[in-house]
Amino acid sequence: MGNLDRPKRKERLSPRKQPIQPRARETVEVILEAAAQVFSEEGYHATTNRIAQRAGVSIGSLYQYFHDKDEILSSLLNRHVREGHDLISRELPGILAPGKITRGMIRRLIEIMIGLHEKDPALHRVLFEQVQLELFRKGYTANEELAIGHLKLLLGHTPKARKKGSAGAARLVVHAIEAMTHRFVLYGYEGVDKAEFVGEMTDMIESYLLNK
User: Fold this and answer.
1) Among the four 26, 69, 113, 172, which has the fewest Cβ within 10 Å?
2) Which residue has better confidence, 63 or 1?
3) C-beta separation of 101 from 155 below 8 A
4) Is the model more confident about 136 or about 15?
5) What is the tally of structural domains in the chain?
6) Which of 50, 67, 84 lies at the terminal end of a domain, its last residue?
7) Would you place residue 13 in the very low, low, confident or very high pLDDT band (cuts 50, 70, 90)?
8) C-alpha dist (Å) from residue 6 to 1, 111, 126, 164
9) 48: domain CATH number?
């Protein structure tokens, strides 16, 4: 898929000029929001001129904060990762409430991941295909480790778990959910709608973890 064709780019994670004053931070947010819209509409062919025009700022103002559109994409990826971390942190207490692995917990975890990725599929596709793979991997590692740690603990407290307390099983499940929800939201599975996808994924993970 797109990952194999990604061009190598210089690793840039932060804008060239760090916005400190409220007005500067507001300008950066306006640029990023405009960039998200333009990338969603035009894909990677979007230009910094189009982004500046949509944001209502001069191209010089844009270049005060970003070297090029690749750096803007990196900042959009960072924002997406932060949103994912906030969502997972907010939803985890409710998911973990039963204190063990349940079918409902598995289903809810899958639904949360779909919700995160389907917020803006067109923009997400550009991020997934164009941001350097290493940056994409680094961005998701912290969120994945958070979910893996909690899932491992739940496996240890689930009487009928086939992989009781297994860090390897927890890692495999989180990575499988992440990869397959990405694939479904960004590219789809022919003839499979959202409800069927969630049901089939839930069956698969439940069978693996609980021998159902």
Assistant:
1) 26
2) 63
3) yes
4) 136
5) 2
6) 67
7) very low
8) 10, 28, 11, 38
9) 1.10.10.60
Q: What angle, rounded to 10 degrees, do the helices at 121-130 and 69-96 form?
A: 120
Asked whether 16 and 65 are in contact (CB, 8 A), the reply is: yes
Most distant CA pair in the chain, distance: 61
* Residue 48 resides in a domain: yes
Residues 6+ apart with CB under 8 A from 180: 201
81 contacts 140 by C-beta, under 8 angstroms = yes
Q: pLDDT at position 132, please?
A: 62
What Cα–Cα distance (Å) separates residue 207 from each residue in 125, 161, 202, 211? 30, 10, 8, 5
Residue 155 pLDDT exceeds 60: yes
Tokens of 203: 């069956």
Does residue 10 surpass a pLDDT of 50? no
Three-state SS sequence of the chain: CHHHHCCCCCCCCCCCCCCCCHHHHHHHHHHHHHHHHHHHHHHHHCCHHHHHHHHCCCHHHHHHHCCCHHHHHHHHHHHHHHHHHHHHHHHHHHHHCCCCCCHHHHHHHHHHHHHHHCCCHHHHHHHHHHCCHHHHHHHHHHHHHHHHHHHHHHHHCCCCCCCCCCHHHHHHHHHHHHHHHHHHHHHCECCECHHHHHHHHHHHHHHHHHCC
For residues 207 and 212, give the distance between their C-alpha atoms in angstroms, rounded to a whole number. 4
